[in-house]
Design a protein that fits this description.
By secondary structure, the protein is an alpha/beta fold. The chain folds into three domains: 81 residues, Outer Surface Protein A, domain 3 (Alpha-Beta Complex); 38 residues, no CATH class; 249 residues, Rossmann fold. Helices cover 41% and strands 15% of the residues. It has 16 helices and twelve strands. The protein has a seven-stranded mixed sheet with strand order 7-6-8-9-10-11-12. It has a three-stranded antiparallel sheet with strand order 2-3-4, with no helix packed on it. Helix 4 crosses helix 7, helix 6 packs across helix 7 and helix 8 runs parallel beside helix 9. The longest helix is centred in the C-terminal third of the chain and has 19 residues.
């Protein structure tokens, strides 16, 4: 092992004999007591020295081998040590792509902070390259989500949408002005390709004529109503196949992220529809009117709000793909202009829904959710 202090965490002496690694409350760690010689030794933990050489140089600072071993063990336990030579075929393949590595240096630094084990960030960044995500929608929200996922290292990002790009589909992080008039699917495919850091790796499935299973579907249609009040029917095959899916979009002047649905583990669009119908006897009647008829007016979709929704949704999607269950799991987040106060609503599983999530206790649902996640992300 060639220990390296995680460079993303800034260091500062907060009191005599105590060093704080990191600035923010979520990730900061204090370590002490620490003398000046040990503080100088920390500068040697840059990933270029193995333990034998570190012990040798530490002796010149009057630090014993035991002191060095104990310190590194404490740093490891605190999640402050990274392994720049994390092993594995996926990490080796990514490490051999210097162009991609340069693009992903900020992402790798962030992942190293979030995942404390040595080499955890590198392994997750490499794992993204083998994942397949489908984004349904190429408007201001969907196209930006697809671009962010591709730029963040997801190896295969597919975008499904119909029709041709309109001027109001254009956004700085999504489809460019030059795409107006092109088929949305074609323009989105080009956007994904431009956003990627190098080409996606060839998989065994691809080389044999098949394709890898979907790790996640992001539902981000141009019609915000389809996210605010999602139709359960399109999700039926996803529930049946156990495919996780995340809703995101803008309805009028309200941004929506979630829920992230883990089939059999968390509430789905069907649960949401049933609960709304129970709460409001007029809901079904109004919804059928909103969904019917031909809309000619351009829908309200504030550019800044759409970009914020896309960024948050992409972050939640990446968190899931990296092995976590983000706050959108079974939960919807909303923010409305002009105050933009993000609020969450937990969506409970409905006993009358075909998804079956209500048939479990909370602990059982958590176990099912973990199993679904491990299957899809692993």
């Amino acid at each position: 092992m060639y220990p390296m202090l995680k460079p993303a965490l800034r260091r500062a002496w907060c009191t005599q004999g105590t060093v704080q690694f990191g600035v923010t409350a979520a990730h900061a760690v204090k370590l002490g007591p620490m003398d000046i010689a040990t503080g100088c030794f920390l500068e040697l933990l840059d990933g270029t020295r193995g333990l034998p050489l570190l012990r040798e140089e530490a002796r010149e600072l009057d630090l014993s081998d035991h002191h060095v071993d104990t310190l590194i063990r404490r740093l490891l336990d605190a999640g402050l040590i990274d392994d720049v030579r994390a092993a594995g075929p996926e990490t080796d393949a990514l490490r051999n792509r210097p162009d991609a590595m340069e693009r992903h240096r900020p992402d790798l630094a962030s992942l190293s902070v979030v995942h404390p084990e040595p080499g955890g960030g590198m392994r997750r960044l490499a794992a993204r390259r083998a994942m397949r995500v489908q984004v349904r929608g190429a408007g201001r929200v969907g196209a930006t989500i697809a671009a962010v996922l591709s730029g963040s290292g997801v190896g295969r990002v597919e975008v499904l949408d119909g029709g041709c790009t309109e001027p109001w589909d254009v956004s700085p992080g999504g489809l460019p002005p030059a795409a107006v008039g092109e088929r949305r699917a074609t323009a989105a495919r080009q956007l994904v390709r431009r956003s990627a850091a190098g080409s996606a790796p060839r998989t065994e499935e691809a080389s044999s004529g098949g394709e890898p299973g979907l790790s996640l579907i992001v539902v981000a249609p141009r019609d915000g109503l389809a996210v605010y009040a999602p139709d359960p029917r399109p999700a039926e095959p996803w529930i049946a196949s156990g495919t996780p899916h995340l809703y995101a979009g803008v309805m009028e002047a309200t941004g929506v992220v979630g829920p992230l649905v883990l089939p059999g583990g968390t509430a789905c669009a069907g649960c949401l529809a049933l609960k709304r119908t129970e709460r409001d006897k007029d809901w079904s009647r109004m919804l059928s009117q909103w969904q019917s008829g031909r809309r000619t007016a351009v829908q309200a979709c504030d550019l800044a709000l759409a970009t914020a929704v896309a960024g948050l949704a992409a972050a939640h999607a990446l968190s899931f793909l990296d092995g976590e269950l983000p706050a959108s799991t079974g939960t919807r987040w909303e923010a409305a202009l002009p105050l933009l106060d993000w609020r969450s609503e937990r969506i409970g599983a409905h006993p009358g829904c075909y998804c079956g999530a209500a048939g479990h206790t909370e602990g059982e649902r958590a176990s099912v959710a973990d199993a679904v996640h491990d299957t899809m992300a692993g």
